[in-house]
């Protein structure tokens, strides 16, 4: 590749990657698979390494975060960051409208926008490129956090389109989507770490991190809402936001068209309740005079513009009786306290329960049974107990003390960091049930014929205790169970049979080893191609792998030390599940079977099932887990399921014996 070609390719890749980022993060409309995206990115990174003179600070490769900083530089804001006047009352809003009318000598048009509950940021663009990002600080000066901000995929590093001012500042709010926040907190809880308090603190804490690579993993997002420039290119706010959208920014999708006070009031009414349906937190509505000439005429007070105000929602709250506290044991043994409340209406739903998180939270609230408690629902779905009305506490009320023993199996709890655990995972029922549910989940063994109720039935009937017990189930065991007719039993058994083809890494994930999620399971499967090798791995060997930390390593080693778990592995192996990586499949021998798909069922004389699978794949064929219209051949051994055979015959799938299969390849 010549230098000129490299330069052209770098530009092309940059353009493509920016475009895909925009489609995915700004429009929520993915235009390419993750793998294909990663492949383009990797190509760009390689070229930039080979031709460093063409590595631009705005390259999409810079979004993963580079060198950690030792401290942030401080810089002055070009346009001071003022705050907004705010109000909780509609009367004050009418008063604001009157002041504006008086100031202008005519009625004004306003835009209503959501007031995002995150952390404010100032973004400077020069010639279409993001050059600097500064936090609010004291409004005059803030921290330069450009490297952190570059990791936020919905903030353009290079603007799209045209017509932007040569130099401008864009204001926005950095935040995290609620689902991403909840997922992060689940992971922290599972890892025995303290959960983050709320999405806003999380966002502002994240911008203060000195390691941009860590920020890059935090899934931050950003809405912009204010364009500041000396160039007079636009007449109004809504026009400038339309333009910002065309340059690739994420702007408020729910802003009103320019309207009057009445329009604003209905906007406020609507979002008061509808805000719980948004994927992120808002704490109110911002009202802005739309016309830029009007804005100039109104001007500023010492602290804030006279042309804007925020209307803040009161947190949705209620007061009710704390009847009792109960404790839930999760799959990993973590025990979560839950407040049982006298049912109360809050933001349109009846609330009966609220999470209390952990022992420290109960202490903080100084909770007593029979207390009148304040429950609040912000943007979030699960209500919180915010405090106690101590004056109403009944005399002699009993202080809530965290339980010392597992409510389900009675074993003593252990406190690891802030969380209490029941460590008796082998026989503690909710943990056993949780593991079974996890095993059948879509991302693990994908046994959609086994629902939650079926698991409870099988568990209570003593038929399934360990995940390996699923594979001992017989037709007659199942037929008697509730809601289990011939058809569902066959379905269930066929599903189990098909799951024997699920790859090793997913079986590993399905085992439910604490902290071994999908990604970690993949990593482990890659480094230890067979489960025996993983079982024998030491803490040191595990930690030596890049993505595996101390805690994960400790959990993996501990898991494979338990006799019961080793017995489960043996049983799964006996039943023919994939507990090693099919490395032979990577070798190509011929293309004799190219375009042909096979289902393998039963036991064979000369080959293990895995071998057959590898042979088919090495010769260009595909192995499917269940018979369907897409199957060309059913490779039939001894003792294969009668229903599979029937289905193959019905669909006209050709049935092959082991001999015939060998002849085919000869
Ligand atoms: S406009 C000069 N619009 O609320 C006025 N602010 O107390 C610029 N905020 O500091 C602000 N959503 O951090 C504006 N749609 C929105 C907003 C918004 C959230 C924040 C922002 C600002 C604070 C005002």
Give a brief description.
The chain is of the alpha+beta class and 666 residues long. It is built from 24 helices and 21 strands. Helix 1 packs antiparallel against helix 2 (34-50).
Provide the fold topology.
Layout lengths: L2 H24 L7 H17 L23 E3 L8 E3 L2 H15 L5 E7 L2 E8 L2 E7 L5 E3 L2 H5 L16 E10 L1 H13 L8 H9 L4 H5 L3 E9 L8 H10 L14 H14 L7 E8 L2 H7 L9 E5 L3 E14 L4 E13 L2 E7 L3 H7 L6 E6 L6 E5 L24 E4 L2 E4 L6 H12 L11 H9 L14 H5 L6 H14 L4 H7 L7 H10 L3 H6 L2 H5 L6 H12 L1 H12 L22 E5 L7 H10 L3 E3 L8 E4 L5 H10 L2 E3 L1 H8 L1
Parallel strand pairs: 2-10, 18-19, 18-20, 20-21
Antiparallel strand pairs: 1-6, 3-9, 4-5, 4-7, 7-8, 9-10, 11-12, 11-14, 12-13, 12-17, 14-15, 16-17
The structure holds 2-(butylsulfanyl)adenosine.
2-(butylsulfanyl)adenosine (IVH) binds next to strand 3, strand 7, strand 8 and strand 10.
- Supply Rg: 30 Å
CATH superfamily of the largest domain: DNA ligase/mRNA capping enzyme
Q: What's the average pLDDT?
A: 92
Instruction: Indicate the structural class.
Output: alpha+beta
Q: Helical amount among residues, as a percent range?
A: 25-40%
Question: In what range is the share of β-strand residues?
Answer: 15-25%
CATH architecture of the largest domain: 2-Layer Sandwich
What's the level 1 CATH class of the largest domain?
Alpha Beta
Bound molecules: 2-(butylsulfanyl)adenosine
**Low-confidence parts lasting 5 or more residues at pLDDT below 50?**
none
* Total count of strands: 21
Terminal Cα span: 44 Å
Gross morphology: globular
Query: Main beta sheet: strand number and arrangement?
Result: 7 strands, antiparallel
List the domain count as a whole number.
Answer: 5
CATH topology heading of the largest domain? D-amino Acid Aminotransferase, Chain A, domain 1
Q: How many helical elements?
A: 24
């Amino acid at each position: 590749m010549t230098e000129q070609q490299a330069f052209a390719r770098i530009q092309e890749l940059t353009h493509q990657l920016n475009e895909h980022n925009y489609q995915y993060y700004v429009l929520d409309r993915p235009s390419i698979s993750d793998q294909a995206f990663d492949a383009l990115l990797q190509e760009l990174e390689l070229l930039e390494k080979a031709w460093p003179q063409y590595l631009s600070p705005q390259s999409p490769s810079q979004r993963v975060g580079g060198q950690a900083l030792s401290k942030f530089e401080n810089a002055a804001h070009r346009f001071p960051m003022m705050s907004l006047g705010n109000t909780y009352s509609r009367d004050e809003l009418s008063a604001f409208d009157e002041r504006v009318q008086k100031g202008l000598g005519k009625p004004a048009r306003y835009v209503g926008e959501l007031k995002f509950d995150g952390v404010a940021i100032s973004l400077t663009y020069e010639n279409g490129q993001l050059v600097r990002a500064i936090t609010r600080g004291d409004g005059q000066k803030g921290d330069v956090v450009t490297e952190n901000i570059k990791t936020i995929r919905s903030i353009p590093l290079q603007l799209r389109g045209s017509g932007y001012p040569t130099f401008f500042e864009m204001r926005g709010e950095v935040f995290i989507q609620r689902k991403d926040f909840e997922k992060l907190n689940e992971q922290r809880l599972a890892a025995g770490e303290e959960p983050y308090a709320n999405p806003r603190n999380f966002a502002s804490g994240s911008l203060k991190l000195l390691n941009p690579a860590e920020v890059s993993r935090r899934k931050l997002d950003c809405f912009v809402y204010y364009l500041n420039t000396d160039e007079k290119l636009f007449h109004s706010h809504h026009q400038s936001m339309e333009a910002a959208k065309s340059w690739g920014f994420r702007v408020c999708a729910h802003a009103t068209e320019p309207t009057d006070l009445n329009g604003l009031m209905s906007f406020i009414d609507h979002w008061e309740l509808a805000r719980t349906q948004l994927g992120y937190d808002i704490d109110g509505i911002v009202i802005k005079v739309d016309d830029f000439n009007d804005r100039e005429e109104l001007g500023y007070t010492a602290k804030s513009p006279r042309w804007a105000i925020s209307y803040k929602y009161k947190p949705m709250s209620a007061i009710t009786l704390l009847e009792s506290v109960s404790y839930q044991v999760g799959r990993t043994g973590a025990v979560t306290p839950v407040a049982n409340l006298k049912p109360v209406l809050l933001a349109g739903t009846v609330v009966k329960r609220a999470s209390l998180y952990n022992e420290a939270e109960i202490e903080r609230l100084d909770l007593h049974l029979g207390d009148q408690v304040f429950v609040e629902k912000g943007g979030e779905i699960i209500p919180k107990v915010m405090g106690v009305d101590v004056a109403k506490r009944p005399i002699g009320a009993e202080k809530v003390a965290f339980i010392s023993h597992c409510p389900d199996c009675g074993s003593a709890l252990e406190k690891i960091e802030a969380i209490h655990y029941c460590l008796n995972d082998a026989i503690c029922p909710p943990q056993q049930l949780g593991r079974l549910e996890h095993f059948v989940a879509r991302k693990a063994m994908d046994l959609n014929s086994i629902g939650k109720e079926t698991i409870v039935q099988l568990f209570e009937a003593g038929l399934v205790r360990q995940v390996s017990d699923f594979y001992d189930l017989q037709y007659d065991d199942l037929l008697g169970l509730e809601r289990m007719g011939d058809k569902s039993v066959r379905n269930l058994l066929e599903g189990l049979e098909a799951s024997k083809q699920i790859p090793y890494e997913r079986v590993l994930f399905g085992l439910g080893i604490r902290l071994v999620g999908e990604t970690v399971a993949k990593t482990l499967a890659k480094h230890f191609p067979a489960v025996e090798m993983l079982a024998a791995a030491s803490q040191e060997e595990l930690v030596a792998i890049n993505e595996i930390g101390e805690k994960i390593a400790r959990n993996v080693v501990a898991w494979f030390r338990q006799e019961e778990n080793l017995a489960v592995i043996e049983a799964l192996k006996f039943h023919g599940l994939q507990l090693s990586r099919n490395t032979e499949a990577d070798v190509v021998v011929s293309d004799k079977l190219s375009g042909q798909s096979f289902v393998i069922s039963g036991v064979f004389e000369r080959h293990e099932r895995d071998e057959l699978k590898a042979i088919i794949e090495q010769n260009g064929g595909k192995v499917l887990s269940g018979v369907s219209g897409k199957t060309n051949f059913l490779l039939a051994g001894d003792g294969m399921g009668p229903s599979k055979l029937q289905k193959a015959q019905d669909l006209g799938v050709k049935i092959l014996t082991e001999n015939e299969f060998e002849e085919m390849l000869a």
